[in-house]
Amino acid sequence: MQITDWIIPLRIVDFVEIAAVSYILYKLYRFMRGTIALQILLGLVALYVVQVIVTAVDMTMLPALFASIGEVAVLAVIILFQPEIRRVLLLLGRNPLIRRFVRSAVREQTMKEVLDAVDKMSTNRVGALIAFERSSGLRNYTETGVAVKGAVSCDLLIAIFHGQNPLHDGAVIISGDRLEAARCILPVSSNIKPGGTLGLRHRAAAGLSEQTDAVVVVVSEETGAISVSVDGELRRNLSADALEASLAEAFTHRPGHEPPA
Fold it and tell me: What is the C-alpha to C-alpha distance for residues 131 and 183, in angstroms, rounded to an integer?
């Protein structure tokens, strides 16, 4: 046998594939680093290496054991990595190329009504939590509240968040130009610890924008300060103009466009 028989011919596409797989594995490592998922993944890799070894040495009982485990391995991986799989899918959904084709439009008049309401509630220190749906559907959260399904107006928003209104607790969810529901329960962010300067509304705003691509506006009941949470980032103490710029950027940004300063 000549030495050339051991040489495997490589094409350009093979180098591209190796680079792509290496990049994906590196990104997965970075994504799971510091989480328990990485330890589980290393354990699965170790089991795979053992399976290869026992198969190579022609054992009988251990390969049969690994074969039975493999039948439920896919389901086990989905269950174990459910949070990480969800985060990956959310990141894909937040890709600007995908948002370009799937987007919940908000008309200028609707945005004006919201901005006017937020400005007035901020002045009067009326707490508010307003979530805008984008490409990620928020039906799971609208169903936790009271259906409204009406046109968005400044007066309606102020009336909902007035302290004497039974709907003032929770969030209002807006989809397109319709106010879908009020008193909705949003997920609370685990990255913002309770007991600090940020209240439950801010933690809920951050939590929803971490788990979906929704844009969430918060008005503090204690200080009247305006905040907005986009893609898990909470921007605090905004002026009315800064809020308008943030919302405009969130609903009109396209790849290659720089966000406003």
Answer: 11
> 214, 84, 206, 198: which is closest to 141 by C-alpha?
214
At position 213, the amino acid (one-letter code) is: D
DSSP string spanning 39-80? HHHHHHHHHHHHHHHHHHTT-SHHHHHHHHHHHHHHHHHHHH
Work out the number of other CB atoms within 10 angstroms of the CB of residue 228. 23
CA neighbours closer than 13 Å in the CB half-sphere of residue 11: 3
The closest of 206, 232, 213 to 136, measured between CA atoms, is: 213
Query: Which token pair is 62?
Result: 């251990």
- What is the model's pTM? 0.62
pLDDT confidence of 228, banded at 50, 70, 90?
A: very high
The single residue listed with the structure tokens 């929704």 is: 214
Q: Give CA–CA dist 146/5, Å, rounded.
A: 72
Domains located in the chain, CATH noted? 3-93 (no CATH), 104-252 (3.40.1700.10)
Distance, CA of 229 to CA of 136 (rounded, Å) = 15
